[in-house]
Each structure stands twice: as C-alpha cells, then as structure tokens.
UniProtKB/TrEMBL annotation:
The keyword Iron-sulfur applies. This is cysteine desulfurase. GO terms for molecular function: 2 iron, 2 sulfur cluster binding; cysteine desulfurase activity; metal ion binding. Belongs to the class-V pyridoxal-phosphate-dependent aminotransferase family. NifS/IscS subfamily. Its cofactor is pyridoxal 5'-phosphate. The lineage of its organism: Bacteria, Pseudomonadati, Bacteroidota, Cytophagia, Cytophagales. It catalyses: (sulfur carrier)-H + L-cysteine = (sulfur carrier)-SH + L-alanine. Residues 254-281 form a coiled coil.
C-alpha cells in the first residue's frame, strides 16, 4: 500500500488506515462536489444521487435495503440510538434487556444508563472460550424482554458468537435482536435479514474508511424515536446535514469489501496463523478465546508472567494492543479476559495482535523476531 511508515501495524481492530481507493472516492466531495444533498437545485441533486449509491453499497454488503440504513458518526452513536430508542419505544412490552459482560463499552455504558432509568439489564456470562452459554440465555429470556444485544465478533479476542441461534431464541419471546457487528462487517459475509438480525451497527474506521462515519441497520417495520431533532434526515432518526465525503467513503469501502472479502480473509488468516504458530513456540504462551469460533485477523496471546504494558512499551515500531484500561491512574485488567476466567496476572500478560489487508509476510516475520527477542530480554514477574 502507498502509505509509507516504518511501523509494523498489527492493531487493525483499534482502527484501520483508509484504503487509497476509498480516499480517491471521497476527495471530490471535499472539493468541487460540495453541495448540500438536501438542496433542490441540480447541483444538490447530483450529490443526493451519490449518497443514494453509497447507501445502496452499504445495504448490499449486509443484504439490506436502502431504507433500512441510517448513517451515523460511528458504531458508538449507532449503539446509543438503537439501545435508547428500543428502550423508549418498546417499554410497554417490558423493561428487560439482555446483553453480555464482554460487550464493548458503548453497549455496557449505555445499558448502565438505562438501568439508572428503570430498566433491568441481564449481563450474560461467557465461558472460558469467550462464547456465551445458550442455556443461560434461554433461562434469562422473559415475556417482558424487549431486546437481546450480543456482539458478533469480540474486538479483543476475535471470538464469534452463535448469532443465528441467539436470534432464533430471542424471537421466540417476541424480543428484538441487535448485534454490534463492528468487528465482523467486511470480514464475514453477513446477510442481516437471513440470520435474524433486527438491528446492527458498523463503523467506517474499522473497515478502511475514515473515522467519524458508521451506519445503523434497522429492519423494516421496527420503529425507533428521533435521536436528534431537526430537518428529519435519515428516516427522521438523525437530523443534521449529511457527512457527504465520509458517506461516499463508507459506501466505497463496503463495495470493496464485498468484492474482496474472500481473498482478504484467506491471505490474512495465513499471516495470522504464521504469527500465532511462531509466537506459541515461546514457552508459557497460550491463545485467549476459542480458536474454532474466531475471526481470521485476531490473535490474543498470553505471555505468562510478563507485563504486556511493559512489553508493548519496549516494542519500537510495532503497534499492538492490550485490553487493559487506565481509569483514574489505576490500571485495570481487560474485563473481557477476566470475564473468561483469566486471572488478573494473565490478563495483564496478554497482547492482542490484530491484522489487516495491508500486512505483509515480511512484517509478520519481523514482529515474530522482535517479540521473541523481547521476551528473552524482559523481566518475568512470575
Ligand atoms: C470500535 C468499536 C466500537 C466503537 O466504534 P466507533 O465507530 O469508534 O464509535 C464499538 N464496538 C466494537 C466492537 C468496536 O470494535
């Protein structure tokens, strides 16, 4: 790819670079194609046509129709619109929501907000492999359950939940099924309608489009209240002049993903496996999460006895991540890993390698070499 830097970037789950073809598609809309798509003059109509095509490109990737796609500023906003919207519009049926303890903070914090407003939220646990237990879900479902929200692919471990089965069980009690598919879109072929998804969110910057753009899929027939009030844009859900350049970019990114999903997956999985097999040769290492039900681009590895923060700090020119979070000077272990039964020490010793389509074989070899050397020369705490 044609962005020159000397970083081995293995942090694609945090954010991706923009595909140069995506950038090319959006640039004219930052320059000469600047009209407001709501304007009735010819210039505005041209832009509106481009927005329509982008909407179709997004819809096509997930097997939806144009009317079911709402552009947002990203997944966090899409999640807020959906969770708060369902809570408000379906409260007559009930005030019970089911989600999972390993969801992204955008879901967990919004659920917490709803709990403070009289809703009851059940947080399902996960097994050692990161998967939910369908029996636990069955027992948690009630006649007053209005929504089940389970992420498609976990951002830290890459674990893929049994979405179709979850949707089926959810619909048996007449509740809606929502999935945060941010880490799945563009990586797995998804037909939202076919597998029973009612609401889904995706984010541009996790799939080679810019930051600050995303989309919400709301299945036809589901009514949500306005999130921002104004001109009635986006089916009345999210008023405000559309972010035209970024929408064009997201559309192009979806079009590319649809065409190249298979070839990307095959190439990336072989790089990921090479990386993982080599790193697992280091004594006292293991993979976190299911290796069967897992996305092709992620390897979350525990280097037992080490402090991942220290290791990452010493890795010059390698971008990887750990799930620990700094909250007011106290470093907390990854809540995703501890929910899977890892000790705090093992969670602190874990590193997420997340690959993408611009990684090369040379890069992987280099990272293996750097990490292996680093482990040999670093202090082992336990
Ligand atoms: C990145 C991410 C989000 C947040 O998306 P933004 O577009 O950055 O708001 C939500 N869920 C998952 C799983 C993510 O990886």
């Amino acid at each position: 790819m044609n962005y020159k830097h000397n970083i081995s970037y293995l942090d694609y789950n945090a954010t991706t670079p923009i595909d140069p073809r995506v950038l090319d598609a959006m640039l004219p809309f930052l320059k000469e194609n600047f009209a407001n798509p709501s304007s009735t003059h010819h210039f505005g109509k041209t832009i509106n046509e481009a927005i329509k095509s982008a909407r179709t490109q997004v819809a096509d990737l997930i097997g939806a129709t144009d009317k079911e796609i709402i552009f947002t500023s990203g997944s966090t906003e899409a999640i807020n619109i959906a969770l708060k919207g369902v809570a408000e519009n379906y409260s007559e049926k009930g005030k019970h929501i089911i989600t999972v303890s390993t969801e992204h903070k955008a879901v967990l914090d919004t659920c917490n907000y709803l709990e403070n407003r009289g809703y009851e939220v059940t947080y399902l646990s996960v097994q050692k492999n990161g998967l939910i237990d369908l029996e636990e879900l069955k027992k948690s479902l009630r006649s007053d359950t209005i929504l089940v929200c389970v992420m498609f692919v976990n951002n830290e471990t890459g674990v893929i939940q049994p979405i179709q089965e979850i949707a089926l069980l959810t619909h048996e009690v007449g509740a809606l099924f929502m999935t945060d598919a941010t880490q799945a879109i563009g990586k797995i072929d998804i037909n939202a309608g076919k597998i029973g998804i009612d609401i889904l969110c995706l984010s541009g910057h996790k799939m080679y489009a810019p930051k600050g753009i995303g989309a919400l899929y709301v299945k036809k027939g589901i009514k949500l209240p306005a999130y921002t009030h104004g001109g009635g844009h986006e089916n009345g859900l999210r008023s405000g002049t559309l972010n035209v350049p970024s929408i064009i970019a997201l559309g192009r990114a979806c079009e590319i993903a649809e065409q190249e999903i298979q070839q990307d997956a095959e190439r990336i999985v072989s790089l990921r496996n090479e990386l993982e097999n080599e790193l697992l040769k280091i004594p006292d290492t293991f993979v976190n999460g299911s290796t069967e039900n897992r996305i092709h681009n992620v390897s979350n590895i525990c280097f037992k006895g080490f402090d991942a923060n220290v290791l990452i700090g010493r890795m010059k020119n390698v971008a990887v991540s750990n799930g620990s979070a700094c909250t007011s000077a106290i470093v907390e272990p990854s809540y995703v890993l501890t929910a899977m039964g890892l000790s705090d020490d093992d969670a602190f010793a874990s590193i997420r390698f997340s690959l993408g389509k611009f990684n090369t074989k040379e890069e992987i070899k280099l990272v293996v070499k750097i990490v292996s050397e680093l482990i040999k020369t670093s202090f082992r705490y336990a």
